[in-house]
Amino acid sequence: MGVGILASAYASGWLDFLNPNSFTTYTSARSGYTVSYPRSWTLDDSQAKARLDVIHNANKNGVVLIQVFEHESYKTEEGRAKAVADMRKDFEGRSEYKLDYFNDEVVDGQTYFEASGLYRDSNGTWNFIQKGVFFDNGKAYNLVARMLTGSVDELKPIMEKIIASFRM
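Predicted structure:
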């Protein structure tokens, strides 16, 4: 039984979380950001057309999506505000989402948002944390951390650490 617990802790990345030296850092040549994640996790940056990078643990019950969007309207404060308002409406209008929290604010001309709640798909019910920023150069970065509901206690601290490591 003890080995099973250790195997589960390794697969989830929990042991990596306890040892800060077991994180690795990735810099996206395509999108210009840096993020750290547990060495036992996998990063897939093959989605060039979608400008999407995916980080997941071995069990795939913890997934971080990093998306980059560019749009001319993001260059204005009004365009960024509309994008965030549309995002909130999208969360509230889709039955697969149950939004628990949504907040946005503008700091030094940059629009930040964060959301959390539940997301349902064919694999189950996921708790999600989503954070993003819109820059006045027309780029937006969106980070989504999803954890299958039964894994939240072990994965949430790891997910928060991955998101907190994100740098431009």
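Summary: DSSP finds four helices and nine strands in the chain.
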